[in-house]
Write a structure and sequence with these properties.
This protein is an alpha+beta fold. It has one domain. It is built from 4 helices and 5 strands. A 5-stranded antiparallel sheet has the order 1-2-3-4-5.
């Protein structure tokens, strides 16, 4: 039983030290979004993302209405999954660009 308690304490410590990854233009491009002026679009979702420099977040816009904002990578992953039922993937072309 002692080992289980140690594992739980270590796991809680690891979660407490986790830091979210900020969403950037680079991440959007890795996920297959294309930049068109200041909008980031793909064929997965019907809206687009636009950088809100005032709040330093990406607004998700559908039909001209800001639906929500996304600040971290895990948030866009969750949003895409909620909208499509599929996980967003890093595109191979983007992986090759960073190597």
């Amino acid at each position: 039983m002692e080992n289980l308690d140690i594992d739980r304490e270590q796991q809680a410590f690891e979660y407490a030290n986790a830091k979210p990854i900020p969403l950037t233009e680079e991440w959007l491009l890795k996920f297959g979004f294309c930049k068109d002026k200041n909008e980031y679009r793909n064929d997965i979702v019907c809206g687009y993302f636009i950088f809100n420099s005032l709040n330093k977040v990406f607004d998700y816009v559908v039909e001209g209405i800001s639906i929500t904002f996304v600040k971290y990578v895990h948030e866009i992953q969750n949003l895409i999954f909620a909208l499509t039922g599929e996980e967003i993937e890093i595109k191979e072309e983007a992986e090759n660009l960073t190597e």
